[in-house]
Amino acid sequence: MRKRILGAVALSAAMLAGTGGLTACSSDSGSDSKTLTYWASNQGSSIQNDKDVLGPELKKFTKQTGIKVNLQVIGWNDLLNKITTATTSGEGPDVVNIGNTWSASMAATGAFVDFDKSHMDQVGGQDKFLATSMSSTGAKGKTPASVPLYGLSYGLFYNKKMFADAGISKPPASWQELVTDAQKLTKGKQYGITLAGASYTENAHFAYIFGQQQGGDFFKNGKPTFTSPQNVKAVQQYTDLIAKDKVATPASAEHTTTNDAIEDFTSGKAAMLLGQNNTNTGIEAAGMKKSEYAVAPIPMLDPLPAGGKAINSHVAGINIAAFKGGNESGAMKLIKFLTSAKEQVILDKAFNALPVTTEAAKAPEFQTPENKMFVNVLAKTSAPMPMITDESQFETTVGNAMKDLIAQAATGKSVTAADVRKSLADAQQKMQSGG
Amino acid sequence: MRESTSFKVIRVVGLAALTLFTVAPLYVMIVSGLKPLSDVQGAFSWIPSHVTVQPFVDIWRTIPLARYFSNSVIVSVSAAAFSVLIAIFASYAISRWDFRGRQLFRITVLSTQMFPGILFLLPLYLIFVNIGQTTGIALQGSRVGLIITYLTFSLPFSIWMLVGYFETIPRGLDEAARVDGAGPMRTLWSVVLPAAKPGIVAVGIYSFMTAWGETLFASVMTNDTSKTLAIGLREYSTQISVYWNQVMAASLVVSVPVVVGFLLLQRYLVQGLTAGAVK
Amino acid sequence: MTATDTAVREGRRAGKGSKDSRVRRVARHRWLPYVLLAPAIIFELLVHVIPMLTGIGISFLKLNQFFLRRWLEAPFAGLSNYRYGVDFHGSIGMALLKSFGVTIAFTIVVVGFSWLLGMFAAVMLQRSFRGRALLRTLFLIPYALPVYAGVIVWKFMLSRDNGMVNHLLAQLHITDGHTFWLLGNNAFVSIVVVAVWRLWPFALLTLMAGMQSLPTDVYEAAAVDGAGMWQQFRKLTLPMLRGINQVLILVLFLWTFNDFNVPYTLFSSSIPPSADLISIHVYQSSFLTWNFGLGSAMSVLLLLFLLVVTGLYLLFTSRRSRRA
What ipTM goes with this model? Predict the structure, then answer.
């Protein structure tokens, strides 16, 4: 009798052990000096595509340094979760991509290698990076915990034929002109512009960018100042497109990512689209030909209000960081490799991103008019999102507030300045108490 | 039994409405999987502009669908098997013995149904990491970790049901077995289990479905090699486009085996849930 | 072979006299239930109980991105996380309360409809007719589909410009085909529809199973007495299913209340306020903003609420069945 019980328990244990053996897992941390674990973000058209692009490059790296790289490509849905758990548990990769707006928050965790002078020199020195890209690596005055990897900036994508049909010969040179152009283009089922109105990240980006143009600031001395009149105007500048000027497709309120907005653009429902430079991959994947559309810098308010800055994009992009406690020397080598001019040219071209180093920016591949324009925007007229540790909270509170305003407008209700102010005040309260 | 005409009418209308309600999304799924990408990105059409099976080919390339599928199957079947086994033991103990702590155990088991997943997601991950650091068996990021997690998720409801089910099996059978010289384990094996087969199948299906569809813990506990379908399918929505036709095609492909299995076992399920729920 | 013979033989097998073997059999089996329970207890402790207690502990800490790495050193916050949660004048507490209200309304409506549809279909499918097996099969498919697949197809269908629902409504001339289903108040309707679509097959299954075991002679007697369908249902079917219904409705309530998958897949991170379900709300207020202490506190408040509701529910329904 006892034997039978023991037998059952032993059988179960054996099954568990057996399954464990069969389903042997791969450890995430490669902390011996000959291997590196690298968590890359999804930059290409699919996770497989990212692997196809990075694979050969990483092989080159292995040939050069003898260090083997265990690559994992993680979708944006999961990346933040995984970094969080890796930070909490101390068990993570050696190298990881991060959205550059996360830089300050990531630095605050203390889990990443600080790029002081010695580490900076190991990856090629701070001066090799574009000044604007560097500005997005952390709070001013604090040692950065990541360095730039891929650059992105915003542009205005427009449909050449629709513009020609409406008698518009060149892209708008000022924001006011954009609105009037959009009004000319809005007739019947066609609209002037499409937005990703349900994406809190896109909304927050534009609130910030227009805020800069209006001369406002969302944070002063570390305290949120969302309800200043300039910020209200900034948010209204964006929401008016759908609320007052009625030139944005109503479906904009449903678009949770720029991808969804791309469909409006490529199907001819909207003539303009505000997107980051890698949007053209999506546009062409949807079947639109390169000859059918063109890109221009997003026009700014003309004239700029008092105190306003000439900013028409935030410093968008991806940074790369190294976890402390892993194969730090190997990580520095990999980061140096990926930010070398040669690799920058290859990877940025493959992912439709912009180079983050001055040397790579000079490469002939980036001298096409379109690329030059984007590089110009990134280098001259972009500003980093607030490099504060609660940046993600800023995006969720303000971005979601705008999403609700846009939804309100799309369902036919009006959105007044008072509505905007109240909405921002609410967001500010959430921001303050959530710390 | 006579059925009034009004009853017949209600039945036909009601069932027809429910059929449409159930089938509409299924139709959209099937037809979208057969459309080219431009079709699904544009206005909806009942029939594809031209029928193409390309999505069904592409789905295997865009994401490692086969790997995610096999991971899901391995994890879900294992979790279900272990969960059922453990539940059988526990339910047998609860229904056949009156021991100290019996009530406490039942109440704790019930209360686990109310735990919001967010609350213990991070701590569980930390526990797995600690186990990994002390014993060298890395549970986080492995299929074993997921199996352990999922089998526990379905345990409370399984135990609850099986206890109810075991209680309906007359003690007389137990007695007869004991009188014939069988110990408690032998009784379990030869008397109780065969009589409880439908309940066990029901509980097995429930455990499988719990593991099959879970996303929150899967997103945190898996890595590239161990990722399951539940979160893997999300990868058809990428930085660049949402490949709707592939999403639909993949959803169909991975659902077919589950639905087939489900239907084959439906017979047991229906019988099984009966007495298991009646206390 | 008589029973006594086997007992004697077992006793001899134990190696002692019959009296001793009887004592040993009882003594031997006293530890058996604990052994049988052991695996369940171990897993429950490992995966449910200890993490839960840790989570509750976190709710008393100020755990944000600064302390994530060394979370044991995070400063003690006492009840301040809870205070944010219950301060209904503050924006966080107000948002939590609103989300809570939305979730309660959502759960009641979804459970109500799922149960009603399940009950209706179970009764309609009780008597055999041609095609019954096919229909039963068909109705169970939404439950068998992976959650992501089932919900994403609805998201696709409810899209304003390219979705099937608006297309159909326009074709039938019921609306102009430009309704927003995923925004504003309609979002609540949408998420209810999707949740019911997935859930009612489970109710159907359970109820069908329950009705299988109902004695048919009672119904025949009632029919002879002149009772119509509706009366039979009210006076016979419902009371006899009380046990199953008690369990079913509780389980449906708990699952729906805590559901994360459906709202997350339907809306990802852009939840309209009318569909702001509590599980997503807590997730957004904690994981997305690195404020884990607050998120844990909110989850604990949720747990307390559910404990109270379940306790009251069981008390209420058990008392009624005792009276009946």
Answer: 0.80
For chain B positions 127-156, those within 8 Å of chain C (CB to CB) are 127, 148-149, 151-153, 155-156
Domain CATH number, residue B86: 1.10.3720.10
C-beta of residue A139 within 8 angstroms of C-beta of residue A107:
yes
Task: Output the pTM of the full model.
Answer: 0.81
Check if the beta carbon of residue A233 is closer than 8 Å to that of residue A304.
Answer: no
Tokens representing C169 are 């409504």
pLDDT exceeds cutoff 90 at A149: yes
CA distance B10 to chain A (A): 37
pLDDT (tens digit per residue) in C155-183:
889 988 888 898 888 888 888 878 888 88
Contact (CB<8Å) B238/A45: yes
Which residues in chain B have Cβ-Cβ distances shorter than 8 Å to C300? 119
Q: Write out pLDDT tens, residues B128-161.
A: 878 887 887 777 778 898 999 999 999 888 888 7
Residue C23 burial (C-beta neighbours within 10 Å; 0-12, 13-18, 19+): exposed
Q: What is the DSSP letter of C234?
A: I
Q: Chain B residue with minimal CA distance to A20?
A: B144
Q: Indicate the fold that domain C90-323 takes in CATH.
A: MetI-like fold (1.10.3720)
Query: Which residues on chain C are in Cβ contact (under 8 Å) with B3?
Result: 127, 229
The residues, ordered by sequence, that sit 6+ positions from B241 with a Cβ below 8 Å of its Cβ are A45, A259, A262, A282, A285, A286, B37
Q: Any alpha helices (H) in A223-362, and if so which ranges?
A: 229-243, 258-266, 279-285, 328-338, 341-351, 358-361
Rounded percentage of chain A residues whose pLDDT exceeds 70: 92
Render the burial of B193-227: b for 16+ CB within 10 Å, e for the rest: beebebbbbbbbbbbbbbbbbbbbbbbbbbbbbbb
Query: How close does chain B come to A31, measured CA to CA in Å?
Result: 14
**C180 with A411: Cβ contact below 8 A:** yes
CATH 3.40.50.10140 is right for the domain spanning A154-313+386-434: no
* Ranges for all domains in chain A classified under CATH 3.40.190.10: 35-152+315-383, 154-313+386-434
Domain A35-152+315-383 is found in CATH 1.10.3080.10 = no
Please determine, for residue C8, whether its predicted confidence score (pLDDT) is greater than 60.
Answer: no
DSSP state of A293: E
